[in-house]
Amino acid sequence: MAENNPRNPWTASVLTLFPGAFPGPLGVSIIQTAANHGLWALETVDIRDFSRHKHRSVDDTPAGGGAGMVLRPDVAAEAIDAVQSRWQGEKRPLIYLTPRGKPLTQARVREWAEGPGVVVFCGRFEGLDERVIEAREMEEVSVGDAVLAGGEAPAQLLIEACVRLLPGVLGDPASAEDESFEGDLLEYPHYTRPRVWEDREIPEVLLSGHHGRIETWRREQSEEITKARRPDLYERFKGRKENAR
After folding, report:
1. Which residue, 40, 45, 59, 238, has fewest beta-carbon neighbours within 10 Å?
2. Digit-coded pLDDT (tens) for 106-115
3. CB burial of residue 236 (10 Å; 0-12, 13-18, 19+)
4. Contact indicator for 9, 41 with CB cutoff of 8 Å
5. In whole angstroms, what is the distance from residue 237 CA to residue 67 CA?
6. Are 115 and 4 within 8 A, CB to CB?
């Protein structure tokens, strides 16, 4: 996998019709702190800047008829090419956020985080002309089984998932190794003081000081939660476990 260029921070370039939607949640907490420290950078590109229409329109009616409008391939391609050309050979994945894409996974996020950055295209209207998706080899990604008004919120989700894995972003690097989706298991429950709250007690094992018992309890909890809530992940976990024997 490609490594981050030491001359440049990991960079997310977002092509959008609404640059004002950013940074949004990317401008708070540890994600903003990491940007302030130069660990990553956000670039927003207004797709309308590449329209040749006097009213800066970027869409047209669907070929074959139907409701809504479709983003034009010529405008989208010019915006994409302008962004990609500035990177002088550094290959960044070009991601198109769409409900029909492959599901976003922690494994894919980790791969992106290990590269120089990402280019994210935020769709609107009925979608993007298929020809530019094919011609620019865009990777179609979905952040969930729901339809939104546009790709801006999913873009922020995807970028945050990547940024928190960059070296130096999390205070404790181990935090990223012991959470949901790592090892195909969902995370175990967490507790803190007070010991009793509304007649609910912290599980005794967590107060025992016995690290082996605590680790076993946490693993059992992760397996039970995953089996109940994400049987697809649990089956994958079982398969990996059996193959390791």
Report:
1. 238
2. 999 999 999 9
3. middle
4. yes
5. 43
6. yes
